[in-house]
Q: What sequence folds into this?
DNA sequence: AATAAATTTTAGATGAATCTAACTTTAGAT
DNA sequence: ATCTAAAGTTAGATTCATCTAAAATTTATT
């Protein structure tokens, strides 16, 4: 029960990496956490002793059930806080990540669950990433890219699939925000420029790339 | 910019102790933080080098302007979070302290100020302690002990002057909560048993001691 | 298969925050 | 005024998370 931040960050990183590969590599953890591999090796030994990971020298590692549940819990808190900051405190999408990196370590199940409750048990965060429930279960999101919508249809903006600050700021600039009602009027067959409007407003165009990175919920 | 938790906790403790005595003693800090005096001495040297305190060996220490402003900021955040937890997330008075001990270290002025805003720039927290404003200024609270109210008058419960969990739980039990309208019907001259009612409800009695520890705002 | 390249681990060091034990200074009691 | 108790400091050790440099292992290339 010491400085659990560090340990929690390792478990979160390992969980994320596990989604791509069964076995996780030392270097990938080091890169994700911006530290040296040697440091990671040290920590892996400790995590293995605590039975949070299963680790074989030179071979790679994976999370135990116990380790996974801690990792998932951190992700749950991170995403709930992000949504909270955007929905309740009116932060913009691109401003919340850093603050949530801190808030995710607050230890109080009661707090996490009440947050969940006042947000109405959300299934995904402002970036469209799924929020696991209190038991660590991810419901899969029904969100689809805007580019997959039919012409003349309407949907609700539920997230983005590109997390970079420039992109998020661009969305702010053109006036696309979480929860907005978005309508596709037409799509140019040649370059797939989308003519859209937000909340019944004025029509304007966005590129194919942007349309692919905006996630929406249809009906 | 390292693990600022520790340093922040020292500055907070020193600020609190400064309210009682001009010069703060090593042992008092040690007791407040539940660590050994030797440890405190070490830290005092570091704080002095950073110009956060003015320190003379064997003589005691006091905060510099810079140190004070960090200490006050932590207290501001602590109290804002406590109020947030009680008002917005429906926690009880006695449940929020520990969580606020963690939340007070979240670094984001923007977050702190928005919290302040959605709480409507409160002047005191659920325990009746004053909340400094963004410039570190404490407005003095107009709260008085319930025992100082006139008979037949009404006021709003604004805090407590005894912070202990048993007391707070007792208040929950008898149904006294922050923001309640409280009416004094009579006070027994012999033992100062107070006959009161909450929000126009049924009359009941509380002891002199309890009445002294409930803070209220009159009109 | 032999060797080079990349990855991972080991060994040894550092700084932060803590401890215990021993020493020093200040303050209180007679 | 002297002595003793309390308070405060120093010295040396420990644990945690990190580092660099060097050694070991695995993987890739010719």
A:
């Amino acid at each position: 029960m010491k400085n659990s931040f560090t340990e929690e960050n390792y478990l979160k990183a390992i969980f994320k990496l596990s989604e791509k590969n069964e076995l996780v590599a030392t270097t990938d953890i080091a890169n994700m956490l911006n530290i040296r591999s040697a440091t990671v090796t040290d920590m892996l030994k400790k995590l293995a002793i605590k039975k949070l990971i299963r680790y074989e020298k030179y071979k790679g590692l994976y999370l135990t059930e116990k380790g996974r549940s801690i990792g998932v819990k951190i992700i749950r808190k991170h995403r709930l806080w992000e949504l909270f900051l955007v929905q309740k405190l009116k932060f913009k999408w691109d401003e919340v990540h850093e603050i949530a990196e801190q808030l995710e370590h607050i230890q109080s199940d009661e707090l996490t669950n009440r947050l969940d409750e006042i947000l109405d048990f959300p299934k995904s965060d402002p970036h469209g990433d799924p929020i696991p429930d209190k038991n660590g279960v991810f419901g899969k999101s029904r969100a689809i890219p805007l580019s997959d919508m039919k012409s003349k249809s309407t949907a609700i903006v539920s997230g983005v699939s590109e997390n970079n600050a420039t992109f998020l700021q661009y969305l702010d600039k053109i006036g696309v925000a979480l929860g907005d009602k978005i309508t596709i009027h037409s799509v140019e067959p040649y370059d797939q420029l989308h003519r859209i409007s937000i909340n019944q407003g004025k029509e304007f165009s966005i590129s194919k790339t942007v349309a692919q990175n905006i996630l929406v919920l249809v009906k």
Remarks:
- The mean pLDDT of chain B is 93.
- Residues 25-27, 37-38, 40-42, 57-58 of chain B lie near DNA strand D (CB under 10 Å from a C1').
